[in-house]
Each structure stands twice: as structure tokens, then as C-alpha cells.
Amino acid sequence: MQSHTITRRVFIGASTFILSVPLLASSFNKQRSLIEITQDGQFFSSSELTVLSDVADIMLPKTDTPSATDAHVVVILDAMMLSWAVTHTQEQFRACIKLIEDLATQTYDSVYINLSLAKRSQLITELDSRAFEQKKSNMSVNYRRLKEMIFHIYYTSEQVATDYVAMPGGYAGDISKTEFEAAQKRGYL
Amino acid sequence: MSQSSSQQYDVIVVGSGITGGWAAKEFCEKGYKTLVVERGRHLDHPSKEYNDMKAPWELDNHGLAPERLAEEGHYGMLLAKKGVLKSDSIQFFADDKEYPYSYPSKRPFMWTRGYQLGGRSITWGRQVLRWGKKDFESNAKDGHGVPWPIGYDDLAPWYDYVESFIGVSANKDGLDSVPDGVFQTPWEMSSAEKYIAKNLAKTYSDRRLIVGRAANLTKPTAQQSALGRAQCQARSHCQRGCTLGAYFSSLSATLPAARNTHNLTIVTDSIVSTVDYDEARGKASGVTVIDAKTKEKRSYKARVVFLCASALGSVQILLNSKSKRFPTGLANSSGVVGRYIMDHFTGVIAKSEVLGLEDRYAFGRRPIATYIPNYRHEKAEDVDFIRGFGFQTTARERPKIATFGKKSGIGVMAKEQAKQDKPWEFKALMYGEMLPYYDSRASLHPSKVDQWGIPQLHIDAKLKDNERNMIKQAAADIQEMLEVGGCSNITIRETPPNKHLMVGNRTHEMGGACMGADPKTSVLNKWAQAHDVANLFITDGACMSSCATQNPSLTYMAITARAADHAAKLMEQGQL
Ligand SMILES: Cc1cc2nc3c(=O)[nH]c(=O)nc-3n(C[C@H](O)[C@H](O)[C@H](O)COP(=O)(O)OP(=O)(O)OC[C@H]3O[C@@H](n4cnc5c(N)ncnc54)[C@H](O)[C@@H]3O)c2cc1C
User: Fold this and answer.
1) Which residue segment(s) compose the domain that A78 sits in?
2) Which residues lie across from B561 on neighbouring strands?
3) Does a structural domain hold residue A74?
4) Average pLDDT, stretch B529-557?
């Protein structure tokens, strides 16, 4: 019975290691406003992780709410490449990192991570709008999949999903904003 | 090698889902030694497999089912239903690669199963609606299918009985189409839903928007509390299993009640391949099972057999139970076993906004939708179909602007905009009544078998003109109702007539061993007892002679409790 359950959990991709995965070693490059990841992940290399985490932070920067890095998006993504993604997706995401590096070289004649934050942001912003304009190209497909996953992990993270109420205790369907906000704050009806 | 258990039970119940749980409880409480035979694994309650206590970030892969499953051809049907297969509840669904069935390549059929102790009672949607008088009269009236041998009045006291036990939170709406019952405090409608409901009631005498009727406890009774069941906390994680036992499942309610009597024995990982027939006595003698792990055969004996393996599961067992007397399957002298397979169907999805209520909000996650019951039982002059449809609807909470994960936009703007509240959105999904067609059929595949050597079920069912015509009308009706209801920005998605609509998609599969008064045209009598085999009862969805528009499980429960009561009386009288 026990072994059957375990086999089944493993089979359906159940994994607990994502939660306990250690944060990756990194250093902050002040001049370029860039987090340089100095340790390989479970799937991505340290240089891929550096680009990925920078792209994720450009997509979801720190405001009054956490950034993608604050929400450990890329660490979780790295782990999910083994527990969730198939080879095709792994290749797509790697291809997308390469695309970003190629775009940097073509546009600015520089490797991506040596660009200023302003230029990196401009590059990703441009890529984002192009990817949604011409959805058929491989570039677009790869980018949109990666973006979707970054956003999914971000918005379901503990740091960001702070309005998630575990035990609402009941349902009130017709209340004012003040009543709603008070209930949210209490975490209970 | 086949082994035979020396113990003789009073009753064998095949399956431990919604109906099997009920049969077990009823017989155990009446003092009968009852054996439940379940093909799936054992689960405790609360179970370690429940994920209801987990936050989004604690779920495996943040809630996503691993991609490998699709690539390797697992869960094909559930994956086709986009967004349904998630890591929080995947363990409660059967994988069609592991448990294959067959269908014509042009007409796929969706068979959603839950192979574990508790069956689909763990994952069901808990919408519990009584059927009305007209639903039981329709076959006789318009000549489709086999006339029901029972009417609403036969079931009414049993509806009361099961509702009292399971706990139904609902409003007394006073509608003939979905009669009121024994209810606990209803869930509230949202501000948008109330607004639409009020507008509809002003214009129509026959169309109502009501709050759904949920098998979730809002005011547990002493009996429910004694079973360890607590009040629903409006988490709406029901499909993950409920540690609080706040919604009705076999695991939280019927099986514990049965266990309390000490009359219950459960064997899991035991696949019933046949119901065995004693030619000399003209009765079922018990069941033969194949051990799911060792593949060894063994048999169990009992005075009475209740098939509760879900509609198609029971049909498969019947068809596979061949004997000299029943060469085409047990209790099949009529040739009707496997016929009249039905399901609800949807061909219309409507979305709209409800403007002007931007200062109103909802808190909590109500575990049930709202509902527009069927208002088209009578064939009107201006329509080209019979029977009718209802709508499962919802505007439970104020939505936010969706995140920019799937659209253009990044950075501060994307974050800020995603936080903004949107106007209320009201969605409606048509649920139509499929007619009972004789050629809508489940049979045994002539050559394909599963890994236990049991012939695969081949299911061939399709929607016909009556259903297609209903879809057209439902699209027009919902457009009109949303306008009358005060909705704006209405969009209607209607399935085109040439696109195959998969029967089974609504997971309310019914038929295959229908009830009827005439043994020549039906399988079961008015007690869900086989015409041909007096000690065999089939009380899951297979017994249904028509499918109406309401979610059916409450009716299965009432039929099961009533059948168990009848069988017990026959046992007392020495007739079984
Ligand atoms: C996602 C979802 C939402 C739903 N929502 C609703 C709803 O809101 N309202 C409603 O009324 N219904 C709903 N349903 C349908 C409802 O779940 C079924 O109608 C109900 O579970 C049927 O009860 P049952 O006992 O016949 O079958 P199940 O609950 O499916 O139980 C059958 C049991 O038999 C076992 N079994 C099968 N074959 C064998 C065999 N050969 N040997 C031994 N054991 C066997 C299975 O493993 C299973 O445990 C929903 C279903 C799903 C999946």
C-alpha cells in the first residue's frame, strides 16, 4: 500500500523539494543594477539564471509589492524545470535566454548582462510587445511561455499572494469596500 | 488461481463512491453484514492525499500538472478539458492511459473516473438539485426512452432522508422544477447575482436565478457533528478533499457511519470483473474480483449484490458477467444493458459584465455556483426540440484585471494594473437534457482488454438534432436573459452544429441499465432491482431512464437508500 502511494506520487510529479530548495548564491552589481548569480541551479547554469532573474525583475520589479527576485521566482522556476517541464519546454526557455542574449549583441553590440538597466529594460519591453504582435514565430511562442510561467510563479508565491485567505470562515457576497478590506485584514469573515 | 472467501456476507456493495457509500451505510445500519468491494486504493479521512490545507505556493509545481503527463499520453481526456487537471487533485482522477476505454475515433466520449475509496465523492461539485415531477414524466409523455416506473412522489421522502444526512445548504425557492427539501442556511448571492435575479423575476414568470444547492454544511446537525464533520469555511478547495469533512463525501460521511455499526468490511484494490450467477438458484451468488496489484482472482459470496460502480462501471461489469442463462451479460434478457447512455451537454457559454455595482464586494469563496433551472419542459410552438435546459451560472466575486502573464505589458504598469478591480462578471453555462437514444450505447470491445484482462468498455454516444436545436435556442435565450438581467458587454460562445460535442464532458453519465415497468424493454424495476435477477440491484447512474437537466447524484442517493430499504424488507421476509 505504502509503496503504491509513493510510486503514484512520484509518477504524478509530486515533489516537495521545491519548497525547501536553498536560495542561490548571488552578488549585486551596483553599477549595472544586476543580481549576478554565482551558483548553478538544478537545471539552469549560473549565467542563464543571471539573465533569467534579471528579465523576471524587469517584468515584475519591486514597487510597494515584492519583485520577482523577492518572490524567489527564478529559483522556483529552476526547480520546476525538473519537476514540471518536459524537454521541449526546457529547450524553449533556454532558447529564449539565448534569444535575449543575441538581441543584446545585435542591438547594442554587447552581452546582455553588461548593458545598463535602462537598456536591458528597453530590450525586454521591445521583445514583449513584438512577441504579442506576431504570435506565430518561435521567438514569440518561446517568450510568451516563459513569461506566463514567470507570472504564474510570481502571483502564486507566498510573498505576493498576501491576499490569499486560508480560512475565510464564510461568504459575504454583498459588502462595501470598507467591510471587504476589514475582513481581508482579519483574514476571516 | 482463484480463491474463494469462506465468509458469506449479507450484502456485497460494488464501489464506494456516492452510491456505494450510501448502500453500505443503509445496510450496515439495518444490521446486515456488508462487504464493500472497491477497485481503487484505500484512503483515510482526513487523508494525507488531501491538499486542502495548502496555500497556492505550497502546492506541487504551484498547482500545475506536470507537462510530462501530456507528452506521455496520460490523462488525455482531462487535459483536453483545459485547466481541469491540477496538481492539487490529480491523484483523485483515473488516468485513461492506465485504465483505457474505447470509443469511435470520430466520436470520442469523455469518461471521468475516480478510482479510490470514496470514488468521485471526493472531487464532485456538490450541486444537489432534486428532480421535479415533469422530469420523471417526460419519457412517457414524448415517447423517448423507457417510461420511468417511479415518479417524484415515490422519491420525495427519500430525498428528505438523504438531504437530512448529507447536509444541503440551500434556499427554499418554491419552484416545481427543482422542489425544495430539507435545507440548512443557504449561501448568499453576490451583489451582481442578486441584481440579475431581481431583474429576471420582474420580467419572467418562469425563469429564476437561484443560489446553488450545495452539499456543504452551513449548520451541522448533531448527527453530522458526531461523525466529525464541521461547518464549511468557504475555502472552495473542495476538489482537494476536505480535512474538515464539511462537504459530503463517502469518506467523511457514509463510510464512517457504516463503520460505526461494526457491520462493515471494505476490501480495496479489488476489481470486480463479474457478478457471479448461480444457474440453479437463478440468483447472483456474489462477485469475482481481480486483485489490482497481484492480479489474482478471488470471489466473495452474499445474499444480495448492489452494483454501485458508477453508471458505466456497472454496465461494464454486467456485460462481462456472462452465463448460460445470460450469454450477453447479466440481467440482459431485454438486450437493453448498455443502451440509452446519456449525459448533460453544454454548447453555450455566455459571459457578461454587471456594471454599476463597483462599490460592492464579496469576501470568502462560496463553494457553489448559482443556477437557472430548466424552464422549458413543455415544447413551445416556436421551438424545434423537446425537453429543455438550465444554466449553471456565477458571479461569485469581484474579479481583478487579469495579470499580464498572457498579454502584452511588463514592469510597474503591468503590476499596478493587475491590482485594479474590474466590474462584476456573470458567466452562464448551458446544461441540456440529452434524450435517451437506444443506439447511444456502451458495449464490450471485441478484442481490447485492460491490464487485468477485462474487456474494455466501448462507448458510442452522440448528440442529435434535438440537442443541437436546443443549443441554438439556449444561445438566444441566454442573450435575452442577460439583457433583461441588466448585464452589459455580453458575449455568447455557441458550439457550431458540425463540431463534435463530447458526450460525458459534463461527468453526469447516466443510463445503460434503465428502470422500467416492462422487463422486455428495461433492466430494472421500480426498486432498481434487476427484472431478471431478484437479488441484484443497480443504483448508480446506470439505472436512470432519462437524464433531466439537474446534477443527478442526489437522485442516485435517494434511489439507493430507497432500494436498500426495499431489499432489506425482502431479506427480512426471506424472499432474498
Ligand atoms: C469534477 C466533478 C464534478 C461533479 N459535480 C457534480 C455535482 O455538482 N453534482 C452532482 O450531482 N454530480 C456531480 N458529479 C458527478 C458525481 O461525481 C457522480 O454522479 C457520482 O460520483 C456518482 O456516484 P457513483 O457512486 O455512481 O460513482 P463514483 O462516485 O464514481 O464511485 C464509483 C466507485 O466504484 C469503483 N469501481 C468502479 N468499477 C469498479 C469495479 N469493477 N470493481 C470495484 N470497484 C469499482 C470506483 O473506483 C469508485 O470508487 C461530478 C463529478 C466530477 C468528476
Assistant:
1) 8-185
2) none
3) yes
4) 98
Query: Residue A150 domain-assigned?
Result: yes
* CA B124–ligand 1 middle distance (angstroms): 8
Give the ipTM.
0.95
Q: How far does residue B113's CA lie from ligand 1's centre (Å)?
A: 7
In this structure, is residue A27 part of a structural domain? yes
Dump pLDDT digits (tens) for B375-407. 999 888 889 999 999 999 999 999 999 899 999
- In the reported structure, the alpha carbon of residue B119 is separated from the centroid of ligand 1 by a whole-number distance in angstroms of 5
Contact B405/A76, CB-based, under 8 Å?
no
Residue of A nearest to B75 (CA): A12
- Closest-CA distance, A112 to chain B, in angstroms, reads 18
**pLDDT tens-digit profile of B223-238?**
999 999 999 999 999 9
Supply the pLDDT for residue A4. 38
CB contact under 8 A, A168 and B363: yes
Q: How confident is the model over B461-489, as pLDDT tens digits?
A: 999 999 999 999 999 999 999 999 999 99
Residue A101: inside a domain = yes
| B143-168: average pLDDT | 98
CA distance, residue B215 to nearest chain A CA (Å): 15
Is residue A18 scored above 50 in pLDDT? no
Min Cα distance A47 → chain B (Å) is 23
Q: Which site among A174, A177, A185, A186 would you substitute to test the B interface, given the most B Cβ atoms closer than 10 Å to its Cβ?
A: A174
State the pTM of this model.
0.96
Checking if the pLDDT of B5 tops 80, the result is: no
The closest of B508, B502, B515 to B552, measured between CA atoms, is: B508
Tell me the three state secondary structure of residue B277: strand
Overall number of domains in chain A:
1
pLDDT attached to residue A12 = 52
Kindly tell me if the per-residue pLDDT of A65 is higher than 50. Answer: yes
Contact by Cβ (8 Å): A103, A54: no
